[in-house]
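Sequence and structure are kept together here, with a separate record for every protein. An example record follows, reproduced without changes.
>
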Amino acid sequence: MSKYRSGIWAGAVIFLLALFLFVLSLRYSYSGVLGPGPGFLPTWLSGILMALSVWYIFESVKGKNVSSESWPTGRSLGHILFIIIGLILFVLLFYLFGFLLAGVTFLAILFYREYRWYTTLLMSVGITALFYWLFNTVLKVHLPLGGILF
């Protein structure tokens, strides 16, 4: 049963997270004047996540989710840690300086290994500007230009 235990634990943790999000989503109205309200999507997504986690637990108990792969080591682990550190840095920079600087910095960190510096800079600025325009103009969700330091 020890080789199945990790799938059961992972499913249980995901289920508890989804349950927590489901309870939080009930604080928002499910429907609004024009249709679905702010609680519609989080309620459905967390409910679907709970159902999928229960299914994953049952599949793990049956032994269908057993993998022969071990935890990442060496270079693979380094890549994963690099991305996690980049995400943490993005959150900190977003809070301190706003979306534009945080987005450009995060994408530059991710791209610098694969592209030349000018391609990295151009892609980072371009993608960040595109997302900023998309959120502010098309979706009408205003991203902060400056954080607490601006």
